[in-house]
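Input (Arginine--tRNA ligase):
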Amino acid sequence: MASVPSLASTVHQRLADALTAALPDAASADPLLRRSDRADFQANGILALAKKSKANPRELATQVVEKLVSGELLADVEVSGPGFLNITVSDRAITETLAARYADADRLGVAPKDTPGTTVIDYAQPNVAKEMHVGHLRSAVIGDALRGMLEFTGERTIGRHHIGDWGTQFGMLIQYLIEHPGELAPAEEVDGEQAMSNLNRVYKASRAVFDSDEAFKERARKRVVALQAGDEETLKLWQQFVDESKIYFYSVFNKLDMAVRDDEIVGESAYNHLMPETARLLEESGVAVRSDGALVVFFDEIRGKDDQPVPLIVQKADGGFGYAASDLSAIRDRVLDLKATNLLYVVDVRQSLHFKMVFETARRAGWLTDEVTAHNMGYGTVLGADGKPFKTREGETVKLEDLLDEATQRAAEVVREKARDLTEDEIQERAAQVGIGAVKYADLSTSPSRDYKFDLDQMVSLHGDTSVYLQYAYARIQSILRKAGETRPTAHPELELAPAERALGLHLDAFGETVFEATAEYAPHKVAAYLYQLASLLTKFYDQCPVLKADGPAQVENRLFLCDLTARTLHQGMALLGIRTPERL
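Output:
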């Protein structure tokens, strides 16, 4: 399906042509279209061009109107104020443009970009042998939504889940397993809940021995050396911890309704063999220097207490490697081997300084070039009702599985009360879609860099800016389409549109531009805001414009067409955010 230009872009081009015709010797100015209360669009760029050309703005605006080729596109163009143009698009143009979008069932007339790149997106980074908690929620949800948005715009994406699967704690865990064989069942014999239960038991037991037995602590430290040296027995047991953890990870991601590919789980251990070379290259190039035995990178603009420079530590004085070496090695791999043109990291905002230093180091080393962008999508904290980081009543970190289960249970109460004709199995299915959607939307409707309060009562409400409100809008349309029977949605460009129909139609037409803008800014909350406004405009349309009892068959078909296109747009937009749209609620 060919791309369907938006009405805004078509009007913009007509204005640019008219400006050029009115002032052929001057470079045309951007008309600077924006939404207007007085008309569909307002053009403001004429003022700047008139000033540059020493022309009277209002006279120039009048000349532009005379040169404007309107055809069936424009219903009215009015000169206002010192030289603004208020522009009203015709009803026919709105309906015909929407009909072209409707004909493209897969993409709604939104073409992918002509020159896509390859984005490696680093998100959803749990730790091996540790339970996922509420702190892991945002990276997974935001990363999954951004990936969906990027792919819709045509970008090729490669996921990377940089799990914590390496480090000193594995010496403790592996040594305990050697001395207590059989404590972990083979991964294929357990489900997610059992896997985490086993891992928790082993972790707590090994930690207790590690803290109380100096001899065991020494054996655990030697086991770390064996792990780093690639000892076969040690690696086999380490792999058992990784496999068992993955079973648990997948069970949580499944509850989150997220697809996580095994080949995209590439943890810290995957870059272990690259880190010595990374350090060597940085030292030989002079990007990193030795300081008190450690290999570090300094930055003039980054200073700490007493105005002392804060270094990025690549290699410790004892020869060990830290997070910086791993992250820099990952950049080398992603740029040189995966041929990434964009690197996107969805990590806690508190790691912003770390990634600022890592990116600058990679640029100095030549691994990040002008052809490769790197962006840290820092996100804020999930807060409780008290405005503090979300904890249980006992002050412990909230387990992610418990949080998701509670959201589903709360949603089941809402669905059961609203949908009287559903079976219990259908209620539970819808509850998962509504509950998980509610958690995701609450996160995604907030600017990623901001903190937000976790309030399940508000999240599963049918009123206000919630995913349930959007899902109910979609389900309501499906109900209308079912009641229409044999009457099919059909566009009728010859009909006049009521104000509520025009408002809904113009907003539907802006879907593609909104998604592209939000994706370029890595701003899923802008897609969420668009969808909420769409559902709100649908409610106003539904209240003011009878659908099945409209005046005449043509108007019934046209309003069914507007409803169906709204449903398709809601479905597509919610899918980009990783949220389901149930047919019945």
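The chain has a mean pLDDT of 92.
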